[in-house]
Specification:
Number of domains: 2
Number of strands: 37
CATH class of the largest domain: Mainly Beta
Strand order of the largest sheet: 20-21-22-2-24-27-36-29-30-31-32
Largest sheet: 11 strands, mixed
Low-confidence stretches: 5-17
Oligomer: single chain
CATH architecture of the largest domain: 6 Propeller
């Protein structure tokens, strides 16, 4: 063989080996091919079935005494852990803007992930000791964090944060990382510094808290040392400190391009590390050394974080915003795989984006900065993946994602809610529940005959419950609905396809009428009364010339109505307490200074609806 041909073939083979998926050249790969449509909030993607989205904190600038005691409207960067049989969630909270003082860290707890405690300050605003002045070029102090919790080997829970200077707390603007213990009785131990910024001369003599070695608790000192020795846990710190010394693994020229690490162990023992902006690497020695970080070409994402983990079913998941724009970070999706290398099936976790009620600098639209429970930081008893994130960098949310993650249904739907726990999970239903617009299983009419309640008092958001059913081009759908009122609010009922298109649209309006779209024409069907159950049945055919029929209490009220938009299949039934909205969109100004939305801090009169006996046959 000619030597030139031989070396060319050798080069080609070597290149293929270097580019092999799962190697340091490409640690992870998304093979699904689906991408998010940027024109709609849910990206026209299928839903991860049964996801429960619940709002932990609804920012309130006016009536803040029962919210967080401060009324600050920049809330962001949450972290979550499970310890002492409950969830712990911490987030940073600032008055108005990102990276502008004052900023402190708040902590909330929950037994079930649905009902959360009132936030407590766990790391207060930083105050320098007497005689220490703010360096020139900075304007105050702020709390920042990339890591929230550490469950030590002896069972203690440590909570962490990072103090720095407004408006750049990193490197030369950094002061150091602080830590304190969370006690089982709900109180906290003293605050200590556990590491100072390696770019400055901060030490115990010129900072506000002692170094952790001054603690009189030997167990606490041991746990801090264990944390300092855990290279994977402390890798989460690298962006804030950057580490001029050798504390962190060498990242070479990529040091300035890796932010907000998450990590998981593959089944072969290797560790995959993920960062913002599609960056990833591999470690074979528990984070002591890393492969050179590379950009995964198949992962499209902005500066929002990428979360990866092994799930309880033995599979793997990544959750991120699958778009490239910084200021419009929606939807939040999940992709899954069997080996932690190859991922498929891009599905929506959170696809709703309410209006941002309060302007603030760098408050990006949508659900972003997603984190789950870090390896070692607890495992809730149910078979779910838990995620936390901010929406519009204003409100804090959690998502319970049932395992194994799926998007399709086989067989008929027969849901009467009677065997479900009051205020518990709603299996197979996708729930979107802000604090002022709840979705719950309730004992109505009684404990033996339960129903699904949607209750709404939010002036700028809504409650939503979606049931995925077997994909088909013809479906017979029946359900009962009870309306507490007929002079306010609305209940919107849509039948949609896999992309969220809404070919069948019904709604009970604030004037006491049931309506439907017949093609492009709004059509009034009949009057409805409050305090009464109604049995609805509709048959929908999905094709280019599709149609649908509606009957109420056995009486036909609409026949051979035209679809509002042509689709080739249908697979979801949606109940929502508000009108359809796709604002903000990609043309909505993100950084245009504006006043708070009128009435944003005040609930409106509550409207309540009950859903029962949902039966769907699709073919």
């Amino acid at each position: 063989m000619d030597k030139k041909i031989f070396f060319v073939l050798l080069l080609i083979c070597s290149t293929r080996v270097l580019a092999q998926t799962g190697s340091a050249a490409e640690p992870v790969r998304y093979i699904g091919g689906k991408v998010a449509d940027p024109t709609v909030h849910d990206g026209k993607l299928r839903l991860a079935m049964g996801v429960e989205n619940r709002q932990v904190l609804r920012a309130n600038r006016t009536h803040f005494e029962n919210v967080d005691g401060y009324g600050w409207t920049y809330n962001h960067a949450p972290n979550i852990a499970y310890w002492n049989n409950q969830f712990y969630l911490q987030y940073i909270s600032g008055a108005i803007d990102e990276h502008v003082a004052p900023v402190h860290t708040m902590l909330v707890t929950s037994k079930d992930g649905r009902n959360w405690s009132k936030p407590q300050v766990v790391f207060p605003e930083y105050k320098a000791p007497p005689g220490v002045k703010i360096p020139e070029g900075y304007n105050g102090y702020m709390m920042h964090q990339r890591m929230g919790f550490y469950v030590a080997a002896d069972g203690r829970l440590l909570v962490c944060g990072f103090y720095g200077h407004t408006e750049n707390p990193f490197r030369y603007g950094g002061i150091g990382r602080v830590v304190r213990e969370v006690y089982k009785n709900g109180t906290y131990g003293p605050i200590y510094f556990i590491r100072y910024s390696s770019y400055n001369n901060w030490n115990e003599s010129n900072t506000s808290y002692p170094f952790f070695t001054k603690s009189k608790d030997a167990g606490f000192i041991n746990d801090c040392n264990a944390l300092l020795g855990d290279k994977l846990m402390t890798l989460q710190w690298v962006e804030e400190d950057s580490g001029k010394n050798d504390f962190y693994p060498s990242l070479g020229s990529a040091r300035d391009s890796v932010q907000a690490s998450s990590f998981y162990h593959r089944k072969d023992g290797k560790v995959v590390v993920l960062w913002k902006k599609s960056m990833s690497a591999i470690s074979s020695d528990e984070g002591v050394t890393l492969s050179h970080p590379v950009k995964a070409p198949t992962l499209i994402m902005p500066g929002g974080k990428n979360w990866g983990q092994q799930t309880n079913d033995g599979r793997y998941a990544m959750a991120y915003n699958p778009i490239a724009t910084q200021e419009y970070r929606y939807p939040l999706i999940v992709v899954t795989g069997d080996d932690g290398i190859v991922f498929d099936n891009m599905l929506v976790v959170h696809g709703e984006v309410p209006l941002r009620r309060f302007y603030g600098r760098w408050k990006d639209f949508g659900p972003n900065y997603t984190r789950g429970i870090v390896e070692g930081n607890g495992n809730p008893p149910e078979n779910d993946m838990w995620l936390t994130y901010s929406v519009n960098k204003e409100d804090i949310w959690v998502s319970r994602v049932p395992l194994s993650i799926k998007y399709s249904v086989e067989g008929d739907v027969k849901d009467n809610f009677d065997n479900m726990e009051v205020n518990g999970a709603v299996p197979e239903w996708n729930i979107y529940a802000p604090q002022w617009a709840s979705v719950n299983v309730v004992a109505f009419p009684d404990i033996q005959n339960k129903s699904l309640e949607l209750s709404d008092s939010d002036p700028y958001d809504y409650a939503k419950a979606v049931r995925v059913f077997k994909t088909g081009n013809k479906a017979t759908i029946s359900f009962k609905v009870f309306l507490n009122q007929n002079n306010s609010g609305m209940l919107r009922i849509d039948v949609t396809d896999r992309y969220g298109n809404r070919p069948v649209r019904l709604w009970f309006d604030e004037n006491g009428y049931l309506n439907a779209m017949n093609g492009s024409i709004p059509t009034r069907l009949q009057h409805y009364a409050s305090g009464k159950w109604y049995q609805l049945e509709l048959t929908a055919c999905a094709n280019v010339t599709g149609s649908f029929d509606i009957a109420v209490d056995g009486k036909s009220v609409l026949q051979n109505a035209q679809l509002a938009e042509a689709v080739k299949s249908i697979e979801r039934l949606s109940f929502c307490t508000g009108a359809y909205s796709n604002l903000p969109d990609r043309t909505t100004p993100n950084q245009k200074v504006s006043a708070p939305l009128v009435g944003a801090d005040d609930p409106v009169p509550t409207t309540t609806y009950y859903i029962d006996d949902v039966n769907i046959v699709s073919k």
